[in-house]
User: Fold this.
Amino acid sequence: RCRGAPMEYEEFQASQASQPFAFETQDDDDDTPQPFNFIDDHEEDGGGGGGADGPAAAGAAADDMMTCAVCDDGGGASAASVGAGAGDGLEFVEEDEREAPVPSELPAWACSYCNVHTPSAVVKCVTTGRWFCNYRPPGLPASCIVYHLIKSRNNEVTLHAESPLGEITLECFLTGTKNVFSLGFVPVKEDLVVLLARDVDVSGIEDASDWDLTKWQPLVREKAFVPWLVKQPTDSEALRARPCSVAQISRLEELWRTNPAATYADTLSAEGDALDGGEPAPIQRQYEDAYQYQSIMGPLVRLEAENDRQMREAQTQEALSVRWDMALNKRRLAYFTLPSNEAELRLVGGDELLLRHPGDASHPPFEATGTVVRLNHASEEVGLELRSGGGAPTDLSHGYSVDVVWKSVAYDRMQTALKTFAVDETSVSGYIYHRLLGHEVEQPPVRTPLPRRFGAPGLPELNHSQVLAVKTVLQKALSIVQGPPGTGKTVTSASIVYHLCKQNTGQTLVCAPSNVAVDQLSEKIHMTGLRVLRFCAKSRESADSRVEYLTLHYQVRHLDSPANAELRKLQALKEELGELSQADEKRFNSLRRRAELEILSAADVVCCTCSAAGDPRISSLRFRQCLIDEATQAPEPECLIPIVLGAKQLVLVGDHQQLGPVVMCKKAARAGLGVSLFERLVELQGRPIRLQGQ
Assistant:
């Protein structure tokens, strides 16, 4: 029914609420209504200054006004002419566009990037309070205002007081919502334009019968605001704009996250050159030794960790309403809904948050740390289980704040793995050590009898390419298996693990970057009849999982042997009271560690995320065989965490032609942290073992 915004914004809009605004034209001096002019896309792109000048300006009536339908005073005061026509874009056409004098001092509304300051060409980001123009500097993928909104994850803007419409915040005429990436306009009469969101329901609106919603068009087109709403600077204004590179603009956005008072000058060195802070050494295809490998990878991990810390700690949410409840384990549960424009917080089960309340006349200030145990993606409600709910102001429901508690555990484990690889000769076999460094070494023989049947019980029969993959992997110390979508990668991986375990050479460690991938593979391997243990980080033990029956914490809680009677008794007491005495807690932890070690040692296969393999309960063990699924989605140091636990036979499964590692730090990405171990080894050794369609 209504056309959406441009395709370039679909990913950004996915993290924003779908929100729809309305404009009305009035003639203050003449009762004769003035028609609108719809200008074709080629006209819009053809003129200097974004189409604001042209033949349509001839004979323009200087007293035609465009005003906001939701403003009482009629709004702006800029003269404009609007004529009739047919096309896609609605354009304001200025009668006279004389070149403005260059001011000796820039006004407060000058663009924070390029200094363009024409009132009709700038808008203010409501959240940050900064002004940006609708001009696209050379090399920038969007106009200044659109680029800032996307980088800062904001979506509300206010027009300048001297703009044609006056100082108003763009919002939906019907609902009042203000997400400009969802707003569009519909011409409803020859003197009325209404701003609406995509797919807004107007069925109950009395005056909506004349609204042709098939003519709905987005306010943001081709990564800029439509020029009838926010003008493009003229050629002369663009020439006077401050030169700024994409790198400087990105640097400025990064600085604003930690220092809102940062300016363009902070991106320059004392000599006035662009300041990049120095680029780290890029990754190599081959390394002389593990110390060179660590010296290059370590700084990249630190850069990514620092970037992640800054991003997470900047995601404080204020003015939240909390609904209180009690969990079955007698711990306090706090439920709250994140604001729609903060959906990019990207919480997952197990994340730690700090809940705060400033207190009031009858309540002292309160703060408590908790773990995310519930996530309702439909309503964006978050369930937080507090570690200690004592003193929680459960009779207060408003005025709470939430901070993200950043944890360096994953990055610390990457650094530990890099160090272990360099200093511990037993961390991997000599062959794998040299192959990971890119050295050409002879493949050692793998002396193991091959099975007669390469499939696994409980799993579908393998096709020819899958049988060949299993057979090849069993005979090699290092294998790279490429499994494009639809080729049965999970079944093949489960079959490989089954036969590795049947070699009776020790436990097999199975990892993947994400919990979803680990759960899926754990389930498949369990179907073969092997004893599978799904190991979770402690922060995820309360999160829902479809393979909970395989998890370590579940099996510990359900031990029914007489030898574990004392553990069960203390567990029940802790669940009933919420805590134990110091002596009982010490005894309980000792018994639980012993039980965990027994269960871990009895498993044929241990499945966990790459990062969880660095948990002391896992890293204290040794795994001769290691398979990493979705290896192309993890940065190389992350894959190293499970590898350095004694790997002598390593299998990497993935598809380097699909999704790669997500690296947020631009410097680390430029240096190559986004290149997976899988991809680097493919570049070195050539064609991987490739699965074909089933």
